[in-house]
């Protein structure tokens, strides 16, 4: 029996995950957490074989997102992590796997993918949600586990955009032309394999560029 701990701040999501996970009779949910603090406390006293966690959850003491993944990977390096996220894009995939995740699933994915992911990571393999595999093929990303790298100016532009400034306002603040800022934004999005501003802002929030 594969022992699973699930973490998500939405109770109805945890209920659905538990039903899907235990349907085959080969896996057992041994603990549930509603955020980073509860997850870390649970792991200290509840042995498990796989962690299934949301990507962005509110916490009082502990960080979420990539910070949580890195902390879990350092403290429990032998326990594979599956990240289930609504921010299913190549940038999130690459960064999550660079921080120790063995699988990234879209919350919109088919119910069959979660059991498949659990068995894959339990056996030491990685598993990527089908919609993300399509994005990877379209982006021609050769190394999906390598974290995306932005230049300092590209990071600055992304951070300011996510803070609410327009391209014109950033150009005035940084003393650069509007076309230069637009180009840096476009290049950053290409490096991150992100196609929409919504995903770009979500990425900036998740990596800690903005609160």
TrEMBL record:
Residues 143-208 form the HTH luxR-type domain. GO terms for molecular function: DNA binding. Signal peptide: none annotated. InterPro entries: CheY-like_superfamily (IPR011006), NreC/VraR/RcsB-like_REC (IPR058245), Sig_transdc_resp-reg_C-effctor (IPR016032), Sig_transdc_resp-reg_receiver (IPR001789), Tscrpt_reg_LuxR_C (IPR000792), WalR-like (IPR039420), WH-like_DNA-bd_sf (IPR036388). The keyword DNA-binding applies. The modification 4-aspartylphosphate is found at residue 54. Coiled coil: none annotated. CDD domains: LuxR_C_like, REC_NarL-like. Residues 3-122 form the Response regulatory domain. It comes from the Bacteria. Keywords: DNA-binding, Phosphoprotein. GO terms for biological process: phosphorelay signal transduction system; regulation of DNA-templated transcription. This is DNA-binding response regulator.
